[in-house]
Amino acid sequence: MQLAATRIITDDVDALVAFYEAATGIAAARLHPMFAEIRTPSGTLAIASSATVPLLGEGAAEARANRSIALDFLVDDVDKAYEALQGVVEVFVNEPTDMPWGNRSLFVRDPDGNLVNFFTPTSQAAQSRFSDQGR
């Protein structure tokens, strides 16, 4: 089995796509006006309109209701990412911070309020864990 994508349900696909394109520097693949994908070497972030929810099952998802998941983006230098995200991100949860598990992390909120982590491994163990993934 392989995790194919993580999907965010939103009331404003265009705003969320614009945020993730600016934050990651990756152009979204727009498969439909109600659906887009930000494709990275290690995974895909899908963005779907809340208008698609009835297709999943009535009430299966709700836009802007997540407070339990963080999207993690591996970056070469989290401090440089912090500088680059000025003017892109409205809500910074923290400044770049060294975490006890060996990452330096920057947490922000996307326009829908989802928690997003940009991180750089700082310990040898964390660096080796991510050495095969594209940045």
Concise summary:
With about 140 residues, the chain is α+β, with helices and mostly antiparallel strands. Helices cover about 20% and strands about 35% of the residues.
Which features characterize this protein?
single chain; 135 residues; alpha+beta; 2,3-Dihydroxybiphenyl 1,2-Dioxygenase, domain 1; four-stranded mixed β-sheet; 9 strands; globular
What does this protein look like?
Residues 2-121 form the VOC domain. It comes from Nocardiopsis suaedae. The chain has 135 residues and is α+β, with helices and mostly antiparallel strands. It has a single domain (6-53, 70-130), classed as 2,3-Dihydroxybiphenyl 1,2-Dioxygenase, domain 1 (Roll). Helix content is 22%, strand content 33%. It has four helices and nine strands, in the order βαβββαβαββββα. Strands 5, 6, 7, 8 and 9 form a five-stranded mixed β-sheet that branches. The protein has a four-stranded mixed β-sheet with strand order 1-4-3-2, with helices on one face. β3 and β4 form a beta hairpin. The longest helix has 12 residues, at 13-24. The chain is globular. The protein starts with 5 loop residues before the first strand and ends in a 5-residue tail after the last helix.
Backbone structural class: alpha+beta
Poorly predicted ranges: none
The N- to C-terminal Cα distance equals: 23 Å
Task: Estimate the mean pLDDT confidence.
Answer: 94
Number of E-type strands: 9
Task: Provide the β-strand percentage band.
Answer: 25-35%
Helix-strand pattern, N to C?
EHEEEHEHEEEEH
Radius of gyration: 15 Å
Enumerate how many helices there are, as a single number. 4
Q: What is the CATH homology-level superfamily?
A: 2,3-Dihydroxybiphenyl 1,2-Dioxygenase, domain 1
Major sheet, described briefly? 5 strands, mixed
Query: What is the highest CATH level, the class?
Result: Alpha Beta
The CATH architecture name reads Roll
Number of domains: 1
Instruction: Give the % helix.
Output: 10-25%
Q: Report the principal-axis shape.
A: globular
Organism: Nocardiopsis suaedae
Protein name: VOC family protein
InterPro entries: Glyas_Bleomycin-R_OHBP_Dase, Glyas_Fos-R_dOase_dom, VOC_core
Domain VOC: 2-121
